[in-house]
Design a protein that fits this description.
4 helices
Length: 159
Amino acid sequence: MIFKLDVRGALLLAAAITGFVALASPARADQCDDIAKQLASGIDKLKVNFKAANIIYLTHPAAKELSLGCRAQGQTYSNELYAKGDRRPTPQFYDLVASAAAIIFTLPKDDTTTGASRCLKRMGLLRGDKVVMRYKRLNMECTRTKAEAAIAITRPKDE
């Protein structure tokens, strides 16, 4: 028995199957964009600027620099919050970092406030200008220069 192959029919069937599969699978937005929208709606005066690679740049009056980094292939962390402010951070800066970390890492704001303030306040004459610590399964790295202080908060992928 010889089967006659109808090329147009086969292409039409393949296109129909592909269309049904595309309709059946839900459209997914980027998780990083969703977190940025939650930050913008949850924190007053916070604005989402632009996205470059896996980093979303944000602006707020209490911070000189503010960004949300999302995991790319091969990185060891899931999300990263980076904030830079004055050498002596203001209470508004502490509140901004704590609120953003609470939204990003889904922790209570009290815990993120405690961790961020401990990290930023430990820098000084005895411990130096770079402090690395771990608090509530978050890795925090605080650095300062003569004019600025910065904090980077990450959570490892496996936690």
